Fold these 3 entries.
Entry 1:
Amino acid sequence: MLPVRSIWNGAISFGLVSIPIKLVNATESHSVSFRQVHLEDGGRIRYRKVCELEDREVTQGEIGKAYEDADGSMIPITDEDLASLPIPTAKTIEIEGFVPAESVDPLQVDAAYYLAANGVPAAKPYTLLREALKRSGKVAICKFALRGRERLGMLRVVDDVLAMHGLLWPDEIRTTEGVAPDASVTVRDKELDLADALMDTLGEVDLDSLHDDYREAVEELIAAKASGEEPPSAPMPAAEGKVLDLMAALEKSVREAKESRGEEADADVTHLASRPTPKESPGKKSTASTRKTAAAPKKSTSRSTQPTKKAATKKQTPGKTSTTKSTKATKSATAKTPAKKTAAKKTTTRKRSA
């Protein structure tokens, strides 16, 4: 049973089939509304409709429509004038064709309405159109006139009811030119991997479980003030520094999302963040470490060569070659010894003369 009154009565034109319907709003606002008041004394601020020529307030019954011309003159337009417009959509929802639902851009979707069968004779054709839409898996694109202008619409089935979404005309959708970032930005694969991990962690959401926290908070505030109690205060958010590193922000987001769901943040997150990118060119640090690594074998080779030669000399079997080497070594040692002694004597002589 529909709890609201109809806002438009007419018919759906389905070829030669006419389906009398009543149009009702499918949505309602639960926002908390406020009144404007005078801060000095709390008095209500009201808007009054005043005739400029007579300088007096007029009632709703005295108010009509008019179009203001370029020269400022008013051209009266009555409801009868609009109802008698020579277009088929004045009192009819004219079906133009059928398309797959996914072909309708969500940007075009506007207000939503339910269509109720108006009278017993409308039940059969209403059910026929509903079942035909169900079986085809398509939506009907239509045109209708409401509140002084012709509109585009989309008919689809919700439960066992025909619903109509008002659609914006294609020329009412602005282009995306100038909206995207101006700078050329490259996203790395490991950044995408972390973004995918964050999406997987957050998972799907049950839309029916979501509710308006702001409205509830406003209602609690009003209730507290009405009863003379202290209004609830919002907890102060923890002060955090600005995260400039995108990878660090993604990694932290994944960990916090896992913790909020009672899951342990495993090492996969760190692995994704630290995994090297094949296309990434080495920086200064990696170049320096490469040079050090390349230079290291030369040092270790020269050091390891000397002990090897000594060890080989000690382990050699006595022979002509080893005798010759030891003789040369003895002569070299004998030649070096006097030089040291002479240097010592010279040093002693200098000290004495001093």
Entry 2:
Amino acid sequence: MRRRASLVLLALAVFCAALAPLLRWYAYPRLAKIPPNQYQEMVLEAKDATLIDYNDGMKPKKVDKVTIVQTLKGNVEASEEIEADAGKDVVVWDTLSYIIGPDGKMVSQIPERYIFDAHTQDPVHATGEMVDGDPVKREGIEFKWPFFTEPRDYLYFDAQTRTSSPIHYVGPRTYRGMEVYYFEQTVPWTKVPMPKKMPIEGIDPATIEQTTGTSLWYTAKAMFWVDPVTGAPVNAEQVIQQEMRGGIAASGPDGKLTAFAGHVKMRPDYAQHTLDLVKSNRTKVLALHTWAPGGLALGALGLLALSLWLEARSRRERTAPDPRPREAADARGVSA
């Protein structure tokens, strides 16, 4: 009976030992991916900001708060079309940054289409990739880091300038009890396109620079606290400055006029929601990548040890001498 049990345990040990690497190196690379139908909403705020007032002679004013509502929607139909040509899992995110002034009215809105590999988060170049209607060809990452982010610099795409530059790994941090990686990127003053959607009806941003000689310039310091397991930012902040330079609006070729200046942060309730979401996804990724393969490997070792122990006991019992014949001989001697 013990021998039979040891064989069953040995078979289970072999099964667990074979399943552990299969789960880690075959299942995980295929199952760990961004879902194509993801939807997410985020609210950010810049308190005590400076904002240009288009309705009052284009003068910059201090305001209590500027709100940015960011929506992200996975476009399943577009991703399936691109996958047919790309031959791999592709995610298409249609995003919108909707900027609201202190009076609740729109300041501007900037749509984006971001196309990337569902597993690696590398950009995938396809028709429709754009920022505010302008075709772009992204290099590097945007919005999300790869699974199991490394403590190093990455190339990060800035939507305002439509260019990519290094985002630097600064070091580990603790954010609300979670161990994260902290990254920073500083974008120097750069001439950028004006938003196509502006609060004044009838203004064509494409002709502003041509007719008035005024251009828009931008600089920013971007800060991200990234969960290294999922690659998802648990917090993001930006210190942004925008200036109108030259021409009529800025009172001459050397003039400067602040269009926006503020420190943009996640609203606290959305920051907590983001952290909870990342923690949930982190558990799933770790279970698939580390916990399940590791548990199976340890279970295989335990089952193998138990199987060998039972086999050793079974063999000792089979090779032990039978005391019954000697007891019978002793009994005959006594009777004589």
Entry 3:
Amino acid sequence: MTGNHKDTTLTRRRALTVTGGTVAAGGLAVAGYRTAFADTTGSASTSTSAAASTSNSAATSASSSSGSCMTLMSSVTQGPYYLDGALVRKDITEGKSGVPLTLRLTVVDATDGCTPVAGAAVEIWHCDAWGYYSGYTTANPGGSAPAESEDGSTANDSTYLRGYQIANANGVVKFETIFPGWYTPRTCHIHLKVHTGGQKEDGTYEGGKVNHTGQLFFADDIAEQVFTLEPYSKHSGSYTRLADDMVYDGGGASSGLLTLEPVKKADPSRGYKGFLTLGVDPDAENTGAGGGGGAGGTPPSGTPTGAPPSGAPIGTPPSGAPSASASS
């Protein structure tokens, strides 16, 4: 069994880190989540506790008298699959099949006592259950997987699993998506950027600046359990665990490790809720297109002849796709 999101608003063939960081260690991240989502019942799963309880030396809690809630992490590159022009929307699935995932992220000002950053725009993008990104649907995800076109969804090939949400007065955004798959040689992850100073225009977010570029990660035991389910199980090959990933540095929540709560513990196909607090410096700016904080992900195997050897996306975006920004 697997969960499925359906959204037929868009049709599939119609268009055939910046300086910043997450709040140190799981405790502060969970506190921020529970404050912002006081109406959410039940306690958070402790499945990520082993990694999330370890503080990263680059992101540590400060005393309440210091006026600062953390030391900021170094930046992480945006990776090779970023596209400009993502839509502002809560549900980014567009009918892509997979285990449902609800993301609740809280943006706070790490330079001002972790006060909420209302109006911040959080942008996320990730691969589908077989490792394919919208805009690059002919990219080989490594291992053995069906062609992306065989998934039977109605998703638009240039926009699925990408989107923005604007933070409310508590700095909170919420996304409805699916649990990402994987591609060689990366572990399971979601990319994100935090923008401030811009505004919603023509269905997307324009202007302002990027304050944080990062990645969200998933505990190995949960990811590997999900990957035994359909449609994930149709992608076979060597999955990269957290300890072997080129970007994740073992810092738990401070390095982007989500705390995950199952919708139903006995049935992982019912989905998960993931949450994290993102501490940013609203005065900082870094697009994540340059170096720093890890490679951001080497493209999977099968790079076309003549393509740049590293940091360049594989596959050609479909006609009418948003333009790709500079890659790492």
